[in-house]
Amino acid sequence: MKPAPFAYAKARSLDHAIALLDGAPDARVLAGGQSLVPALNMRLSTPSLLVDINGLRELGEISRRNGHIEIGALVRHAQAERSSAIAQLAPLLTQAIPHIAHPAIRNRGTFGGSIALADPAAELPACLLALGAEIEVTGRTGRRSVAADEFFKGLFETALGPGDVLTAIRIAVPGSAARFGFAELARRHGDYALVGLAAAGTVHGGGLADVRLAFFGVGDRATRARQAEAALESGNLDAAVAALQHDLSPHSDVHASAATRSHLAGVLLRRVAAQLDSST
Amino acid sequence: MKRTPDVAPIVTALDRPNSYIGRSVPRPNLARLTQGRAQYVSDITLPRMAHVAFVRSPHAHARISKIETTAAKQAAGVIAVVTGAELAKVMTPWVGVLTHLKGIKSAPQHPIAVERACWQGEAVCAVVARTRALAEDACELVEVSYEELTPVTDAETALDPTTQVIHPELEDNLTFERKHEAGAPDQGFAQADAIIETTFRFGRHTGVTNEARSIVADWNPGEQRLTVYQGTQAPHMMQNLFAKHLGLEEHQVRVLTKDVGGSFGIKVHTYADEMATVALAKLLRRPIKFVADRLESFVTDIHARDHRVKAKIGVTRDGTITAFEIDDLTGIGPYSVYPRTSGIEANQVVNLVGGPYTCPNYRARARVVFQNKNVMCQYRAVGHPIATSVTEGLVELAAAQIGLDPLELRRRNLIPDDAYPATGASGIKFEALSHHACLAHIDSMMNYAGLRAEQARLRGQGVHRGIGFAAFIEVTNPSAAFYGIGGARISAQDGATVRLDATGALFCATGVTEQGQGTEAVIAQCVATAFGVPLERVRVLTGDTDNVPYGGGTWASRAAGIGGEAAWQAGKALRANVLAAAASILQADPKKLDISNGVIVDADNGRERIGLDEVARVVYFRPDTLPPGFQAEMVATRHYVPRGYPFAFTNGIQASYLEVDTDTGFIKLLKHWCVEDCGTVINPQLVDEQIRGGIVQGIGAALFEHCVYDERGQLLNGTMADYLVPMAPEMPDIEVGHVVTPTADSELGAKGAGEAGTAGASGGIMNAVNDALRPLGATPITEIPMTPDVVLRALNKI
Asked: Nearest residue of A to residue B709 by CA position?
């Protein structure tokens, strides 16, 4: 279990990183390395070049600007987990991050890395969908912003193109009526979830509006359950659970059958809906 | 974590001055292990050492039509590329059979596949290079052409006439079959008021060791000698096998086993890739290192369990068990593993089912079949978790059927504590067990009545908790009955050599080995106590076939009971020798002297007479001052093998308390108890941790661990991400209690403790889950691992 030979370059600046990536179409960005390095060792990934962006300090900050909270791509999970700004302005993330793997992995793994990898069972892509986040991508042609709903394209596939670096995540600061919920079911603490759900909504009258339900572990990517969202907005939880049959197409694997995943998605929706209702 | 308090020695012979028997002294190797100064095989680097990596078959069953090695041979750093056919000229193949397993058969197995690969992961070509990374690079350049053959993967159909026979020369896919009948089972079932019949399924799993299998082999043509550094449980067994299959004399082979990062039975077998490494060292005349990586560990480390047992119990209304019947089927891969065979686990299932109980009526059949999956063989608590889960699963289903408390049903059927010696329905012999004392102990330790009350109260609040038990027996301290009588050159006896050094400290060389479980501590405790020195004055050497007495090593819970007794006797013998020397110096009667705390004392009043250092000084440097004709002997060797019984059975009972989330099918373990009887407890902390560790592996089997194969014979979850080992957050607090019934076969009285935890854990947990779900009308669960799929199906929710 040794990686195939590869070249390594430490980026001196973001422009340098982009130039390096541009020169080698199969290059991979090395951030925390918590998924990439095992993939290299198992020879599941055999890039000719690793571009190490760990020296780019400007990508490691959490800041508030223009009604948004901005999380740099190199912010470590542990840093985000402890951040009072995130706890205050994006509490869904504070709720979700302890579920990401184990402390040692959270110490090293990065926020941007998790988004860029787009593992279908990972927590953060679903959180960004629920939060309606914007993902900032920097490439040869400059910066652009991609809505989370447009970012995740398929199994480990994103809107990132060759030469692109994911540089930051922006999340709008929520209003006082915003509500969040999160739950996941994993066989062991720290494992990828069999099924998970990140949710957001706004208290409106006696019910909920702007409901966003983002499931993970039940498809090829984090997925919005749009019919269920509509049913929940109309106050019908049973209909929302039933709608998951249309919204989700879970798979079978060694950990759980599709039928189990489908059933568990309904259980999670009831539990998370209770969080949305009860959180103040 | 609760630690059992130090107990006073209970046998007078052990009641020595400064006795360490029954004391939780720290392990002498703790500092070495925790400071990173241990020596594992991976740490070994020799001059001119090269590394081997293996090209492994991606198919479960395939003919190898061509191996193109030209490109690989030209790759950077490559020293040699060797095929199975080429290595077959250096090393002879082996066949894993034993004569006492009547009719067992297997096919010759080569270190590297020749012509045909029989499971996914079998090595088909070796690449030796300067580094492991370069060897792996070159592996990718070896082009192997395969013709895929139909794989045999389902044990249920392996014996069908239409199924392909994996080894045509064997005529069918049956490895081994055993039938046993005792008493009058038909009559027993006829007398029963209730008969429960069900099928139990046990997932195939493996023992994930912290340190992967590792070996460095060094052939020295100048000395015509092979030195093998190997993480193994049985150095002398391996010495014999390396010699035999390389055509060497045993004395031409030295096996060195220093620190080993866990074994669990995984490292007591012959592995083709390790044999290939040794053969390559001889062929290439240079040291070769092989360290299995995790991916190859999953497809080559032996797997275990994978049994389907159809089982039946009869019980009367008053709670008398009238008969047991089982039909066990297990698929063991394409070869019976050498030299212990893959027939032992099924054989143990037949031996052990019904074992704790008086019921004499028993019918059993076990069939072991070949299939194209990784090989299966003996892993911690061989056969016991299966036999225990089947027996105890049936017992609790019967209890529920007749409406009797499950502990009460056991009380009415367990062999009485005063009925020994006794013989089980399968013919196994028990010297002295303590089922009823253990049951009474666990009843009060867990506050059973209180837990039942809590369970009922919570049930009213929609919380579904379950309590499950598993009474067990466990084979330990094996005599030659296990392997020797079947023709395997695996030592049942073990020895210890104790030497007084020139400053009065002791050095003990023992044939049993240290796998991280604490052998060195236990041996040192026995020697220090028997001889009479502080523990820190004893240094223990293990794992060196040139320098330790011939012995079996560590398996079947034998290190403390057998190795400990040999060390105890050697310590006593050396004490007598040293007292003879001291007496001649002091001109005293040796019978009136003793050794206490490293000093020669008067036996009756403890008055100090002379230091051990002074005795050693005189003996070694001034023997001229000793009386004429007196020769001091400062080395003593003793051996021990149990003779009274084939095995020293231990016994005990475990209990699990858990909660099932009936919405998700998730199981939360709340608490686990085990009361066991391993005879004399030499080191309570080590025993308790062995029990706990064993239970954790049983929990792994019950809830998590499973080698999942598809119908093509492909392992689907061979990584640490997908194969779920039990981890700390999911583990309950485990409380351990003891009843002590020493074996009279040895002076020490110690039986084994290494496997009992694994024997009973999965059965207890299965019973607890069924106890939790029974009021909900769920179908009883009779398979492990109990995944959310399994639980939700039982609840009819998916």
From this structure: A254
Count contacts between A and B (CB, < 8 Å).
64
Structural domain of residue A73, as residue ranges?
Answer: 57-172
| CA separation for the pair B25, A171 (Å, rounded) | 57
- Average pLDDT on B323-341 reads 98
Residue with tokens 């993902």: A135
- Report how many domains make up chain A: 3
Of B666, B722, B730, the CB nearest to A254: B722
| pLDDT classification of B412: cutoffs 50, 70, 90 | very high
Q: Which one is the CATH code of B41-153+209-300: 3.30.565.10, 3.40.50.150, 2.60.40.10, 3.90.1170.50? A: 3.90.1170.50
The pLDDT assigned to B12 comes to: 53
- Does a structural domain hold residue A265? yes
Q: How far apart are CA B252 and CA B226, in angstroms?
A: 6
Per-residue pLDDT at B601 exceeds 50: yes
Nearest chain A CA: its distance from B669 CA (Å) = 12
Short-list A210, A218, A266, A214, CA closest to A238: A266
Residue B211 pLDDT exceeds 60: yes
Q: Do A263 and B293 touch (CB under 8 A)?
A: no
Q: Where are the domains of chain B?
A: 12-38+493-640, 41-153+209-300, 310-336+352-365+381-478+647-794
Distance from CA of B137 to the nearest CA of A (A): 6
| Distance between B422 CA and the closest CA of chain A, angstroms | 44
Instruction: Give the whole-angstrom CA distance, residue B641 versus residue B563.
Output: 9
pLDDT tens digit sequence for B463-490: 999 999 999 999 999 999 889 999 999 9
Beta-strand pair B307-315/B123-129: unpaired
Considering the segment(s) B12-38+493-640 as one domain, its CATH architecture is: 2-Layer Sandwich (3.30)
For residue A153, pLDDT over 60 is answered with yes
Quote the tokens at residue B688. Answer: 């308790």
In a domain, A1, yes or no: no
Chain-wide mean pLDDT for chain A? 96
Q: Which two tokens stand for residue B739?
A: 């009843």
Q: Does residue B705 belong to the interface with chain A, where contact is any CB pair within 8 Å?
A: no
Cα B197 to the center of its chain, rounded Å: 31
In a domain, A189, yes or no: yes
Regarding whether A183 and A86 lie in a shared domain, the answer is no
- Tens-digit pLDDT profile for residues A95-131: 999 999 999 999 999 999 999 999 999 999 999 999 9
